[in-house]
Each structure stands twice: as C-alpha cells, then as structure tokens.
Design goal:
This protein is of the alpha/beta class. It has two domains: 304 residues, Carbon-nitrogen hydrolase (Nitrilase/N-carbamoyl-D-aminoacid amidohydrolase); 314 residues, HUPs (Rossmann fold), CATH 3.40.50.620. The protein contains 19 helices and 20 strands. It has a seven-stranded mixed sheet with strand order 13-12-11-10-9-8-15, covered by helices on one side. It is elongated and about 100 Å long.
Length: 638
C-alpha cells in the first residue's frame, strides 16, 4: 500500500573508543531491535565503528583495517534486514583517508559517501587525518571483491516517492550544505552521521539548524550524533538524535544516556513532495544550481501500513497548540486583517465601514477588525456603521448580543427589519412564505446584502464582508448575498481560528465587552434563516447539518495545503479525533466535505478582495485556481 509514510530511526548506541569489535556488536544489536520495530532507515553516528575521538590512532593501519573488516562483517550479519542502514567509519582510498558513511541493505554495501567539509578550527583538527570528498579521484572502491559506488554524489531510492541523501556532521554547518544540492537533485530524506560535542546553548542551536535546513529543502532530516562513550579528554558528547520534517522537530532523544539513545518517527514523504511541487522557487533553484552527475542507487524499502504508523496528528492545524504562540499568532492575524482593511479605506479615500452585525462569530470578528482599522487611520469608531437586520430566524439571544456589542464599542447603530421586504419579495415572485426552502432562506440573505450595499453607497463607505474560510470551502454562503462584499476581512480565517481570535480580543478588551464576546462565543453557529423553536432558541444549527467545523477545518488544511489523498486524510483524522468521533462519522463528513468543496467552486471563482493571513487561502487570484465544473468522483474512492 502506498501510504506515503516511512519509519526512520536515528541511533547512538554506546560507543567505545578504538574498540571496533565492541562497537560492531552494539551496532548489530541495534539493527536487530530497530528492524523488529519496523524502521526502514537506521542512521548511526559519524565514525561509529571506531568512535570519533581516536585522534592520531586514525593513522594506525590496525584501526583502519579493523574498521573495514567490521564493515564487511556488519554487512553480512545484517543481510536479514530490509532496512537501509547508514554507519560511519574511516576508509582509506587511493592513498587518502576519508571520513565516510557506508550505506547498506540486505547484506549489500550500496555505496560509500565521504565527508565534504573537514573542520579544522577551535576543538576540531580533522584535516590532520581526513581528506575532503573534493579530493576523490574515483567513482567506486573495491570492498570484499565487490565494486561499491564511492562519492558525495550518491542518491538512494527508498520508494516510489522517497530518495535518500547522506551528509556528515560539519557538512550541515556550512552556508551551502551538500544536503541542499542533494535535495535539488531529488533527495527528500537526508541522513546526517554526526559527532557533535556539547557546549552551553549548542543543543538549541543545533536543533535550529536541523529544523531550518529541513524547512528550506522541504525534506526530512535524520540526525544521529556520538554519545557519552566518546573520549572525554577535552570534550563531552551527548548522543543527540533528532528527526525533523519540513521545519518541525518530530522526535528527539534523551541526551547524556550512558546506555545509548535513539529517536524514531514516521516521515510523510508525500507531504514533502507536495510542498516542492507547489513551491516554484524550489524548482527555479533546481534549474539554476542542479548538478547532473549524481548517481542514483536503488534501495527499495516498504512503506509503513497505516495501522503501524504511530505518528499523531494535532486536530487543530490552523491553531497553535502552545498558548503563548497562539496569542502571538492571534495578534498578528488581527493586525494583518485590520491593516488590509485600513489600506483599502485609505486607497479609496472612504472613511466609513458598513457591517451587518448578526450577533454571531464571523460578524463579531469583522467588527473587531474594523475597530482596529479605524484606530490605525485615526478615525472614530462612529465611522463604523453597524446594521442589525432581524429576520424570520433571529433570536433574542443573538439580537441582544449584536446590539450590546455595537453600543459598547461606540459604533453607529442602525436597525432595519427585513421581514416586510422579504414577504413582499416572496409575494412578488409567487413564493409561499410558509414553505421554508432554499428560496425562503436566500431571500433573507440577499435582502440583507442589498441593504448593506445601498447603505455603503449612501454614507460613502465600504461594505465589510464577514464570511470565513470554512464557509467558503463548504460553499456555506448564499451566492450574491453574504458571499459578496466590498472587502472580505475573514476570507482566509477558518472557523476554528475565528473563535480564538474573538476570545483573544475579549481577554484583551476586558470589562463589559469581554462579557458580551464570551456570550457570542457560547452561541451555536447558525445563519438564522429558519424560524426558532417553540422556546425562541436557535433551531437551525450549521454543525447539525454539515458536521463539526473542527473536522472540516482539519480536512480543509491538509486537502488544500498538501493535496493529501482522501484515504490518507481519513486515517489522519481518525488519529486526530480518536475517541471523539467514529471512523464512520469521519468518513461521512469527508464525503460531504469533498462534494461541497467541488460543487462550490463557482462561488469562490468570483470572490471579493480580502487579506491572506496564513498558508491556506482560497483566493482565485493567487492561491487556489480550480475549474468550477470539475468532477469529484476520483476523490470519493476511499
């Protein structure tokens, strides 16, 4: 099954300086354990078979020969494993000694990659012993009577969509690492065999470099460093193992563990490939800098079955899980929204904003954004014309929330009852007002938009749209009604994020306004186009019809951001919402999402302007271009 997941492991078993046999036995035990756990890629530290801190012992023939003999034995004794294994050793080639990574699978040595950048500063004196890969004058070496590819230009195909590249320690720390070239030539997983000693703050710096390189190259980065068994004559090593994917740290080991350390993670290489396809600059960089003399070596591994993948997925991809980060994100998003509206007002020379206020979440957020925009322009809140338009489904709860918020923010209040106009309109078109169908609902929605457009013309202002990203994705808006405005400030803000933005402002403003906003947050999401129940409460609840917005936002993020296939998306959602929703529910809502997403594109093809705030946007002008008449059949095959 093509799941797109591969399990990888960075390992740092206990190492003994210059005791090759002991290190070999530890390596064999580690491969056995990692293979049994399902790892398809196992990365050891730099020079593991000898240890990194052998010093001038690297000039001893006995040590170099023992390392080569150990590599041959290691290859034969790991023949049972389908995993690709990267292990470090010193190797003498054509009269020079190289710091190398051997890549093995199923008893074969697939290739040898020598280190390119040899550090010779501060505590490092590697040039005393090792030559750079730039000195290599051959493309292969003979090991155990077999010709083995040799060079820094080797790539290893792991599956139909995953390619491995290898670099060693210092290679990562230079301005343009070899891994950048490797990735431009097809690698999407980088193994780094390292021996990075510890110093105050170095661990954070090291993790940042790994994270940034994985982000810049849209790759997974598997980093394994030497452990505390290395010589402590002048330095201490911690066995730091880190796995990153596209800028995110997926797994890291405990440091300073005497019995060894390791980190494992499931890499989503389909997501990485999707990122590369979408990023035009990556392709341009590829064309400008790509080398054509790379050797590609087949080393196929099994992709992980969904049931075996232990990776968890955060259910709210639009919302940071960390509270302090979430607050920073909310502040930044509100600034983007309000700056966009302020710019549009300044450009047009208009000084007033018109908003239809329902007492619901979206219009509340739009109002809060408008207040901040007026502050940016040094204009009074009275320049915001807030219009309440009670209809057949308006409840006392939402009406009171709307009126109280308008007055508490010192904006201009206007109320127009749309019921008489709607009844007249339905009479004119011959529609029975007792039939509560789509015509009944959309009559109200379009009446409201007509009123707001005309008031905007009358007062010389801009009609601020309130619809959010989730509604646009699902087509949960009336064409040429709430679908339309003069500037849509919420157009790339999903519903799950709207709640956090309103709560953020509530806590910031405090007092009476905070209490009103908290009541808005407690109100069920509803367009209020159908009459309330017998107790005057909201009867028409959006999530009863569509399913939870938190699930649809999860689908939206991965579907648009990474082009994730439905079967994989369902698997991810079942993990993210495990124990909360059943797989049958998630499957039903995924079908609904796909159908509504496709059939609603015609609404998104003619959207008003509005600011992009995050990595997912459906603007037909810049972010998402899709034909309005595409079929969704292929996406329902799960």
């Amino acid at each position: 099954m093509n799941t797109g997941f591969i399990k990888v492991s960075a390992v740092s078993p206990r190492v003994t300086v210059a005791n090759v046999e002991k290190n070999l036995q530890n390596a064999l035990k580690t491969v056995k354990a990692e293979s049994e756990s399902g790892s398809s890629l196992i990365v050891f530290p730099e020079l593991y078979l000898t240890a990194y801190t052998c010093g001038d012992l690297f000039l001893q023939d006995a040590l170099i020969q023992s390392a080569l003999d150990a590599l041959i034995k290691f290859s034969k004794e790991t023949a049972y494993s389908d995993a690709v294994i990267c292990i470090g050793l010193p190797l003498r080639v054509s009269g020079r000694l190289y710091n190398c990574a051997a890549v093995l699978q199923s008893g074969a040595i697939l290739g040898i990659v020598p280190k390119t950048y040899i550090p010779n500063y501060n505590e490092y004196y590697e040039k005393r012993w090792f030559a750079s890969s730039e000195k290599v004058n051959c493309s292969s070496v003979i090991i155990d009577d077999e010709e083995v590819p040799f060079g820094s230009n080797l790539l290893f195909t792991l599956s139909s969509g995953a390619v491995l590249g290898v670099e060693i320690c210092e290679d990562l720390w230079v301005p343009v690492p070899p891994s950048s070239e490797l990735c431009l030539n097809g690698a999407d997983i980088i193994a780094n065999l390292s021996a990075s000693n510890e110093a105050v703050t170095k661990n954070d710096y090291r993790k940042n470099i790994i994270s940034v390189q994985s982000a810049k190259c849209f790759c997974a980065y598997v980093y394994a460093s030497s452990g505390v068994g290395e010589s402590s004559t002048d330095l201490v090593f911690s066995g730091a193992c880190t796995i990153a994917e596209n800028g995110a740290i997926l797994s890291e080991s405990e440091r300073f563990a005497f019995d060894g350390s390791s980190a494992s993670a499931f890499i989503d290489f389909e997501k990485l490939n999707s990122e590369r396809v979408r990023n035009g600059s990556f392709s341009d960089n590829n064309e400008i800098l790509r080398e054509n003399d790379f050797t590609v070596i087949p080393a196929y591994v099994n992709e992980a079955e969904y049931d075996d993948v232990t990776r968890n997925f955060y259910p709210y991809p639009f919302v940071p899980s960390n509270e302090s980060e979430r607050e920073l994100r909310c502040g930044e998003i509100l600034s983007i929204q309000s700056a966009g509206l302020a710019k549009r007002l300044a450009h047009t020379g208009l000084k007033k904003a018109v908003i239809g206020i329902s007492g619901g979440l979206d219009s509340t957020l739009a109002l809060l954004v408008a207040v901040k925009a007026m502050e940016m322009l040094s204009l009074p809140n009275e320049n915001i014309i807030c219009v309440t338009m009670p209809g057949f489904g308006t409840t006392d709860m939402t009406y009171n929330n709307a009126v109280e918020l308008i007055k508490a923010l010192n904006t201009t209040f206007k109320e127009i009852d749309i019921k008489p106009a709607c009844l007249r309109h339905m009479s004119d078109i011959g529609h029975d007002s007792d039939i509560h169908d789509i015509t009944y609902e959309n009559t109200q929605a379009r009446e409201r938009t007509q009123i707001l457009m005309d008031i905007s013309n009358k007062v010389g202002g801009i009609l601020v749209g309130t619809g959010d990203l989730s509604e646009l994705a699902l087509g949960w808006c009336t064409y040429n009604a709430d679908h339309m405005s003069m500037y849509g400030v919420n157009c790339s803000v999903p519903k799950t994020l709207v709640r956090h933005l309103v709560r953020f402002e509530a806590e910031k403003l405090g007092g009476e306004i905070e209490q009103i906003l908290l009541r808005v947050l407690a109100t069920p999401v509803s367009p209020e186009l159908l009459p309330p129940d017998e107790n005057g409460n909201i009867k028409q609840k959006t999530e009863d019809k569509l399913g939870p917005y938190e699930v649809h936002d999860f689908y939206l993020y991965y579907f648009v951001r990474f082009g994730t296939k439905p079967q994989k998306l369902l698997f991810m959602a079942s993990r993210a919402f495990s124990g909360k929703y059943s797989e049958e529910q998630l499957k039903e809502w995924l079908r609904l999402f796909i159908k509504r997403f496709f059939i609603s594109q015609f609404k998104r093809s003619c959207l008003p302007d509005g600011p992009k705030v995050g990595s997912v946007s459906l603007s037909p002008r810049g972010d998402f271009r899709m034909p309005s008449d595409a079929e969704f059949t292929e996406w329902l095959k799960f």
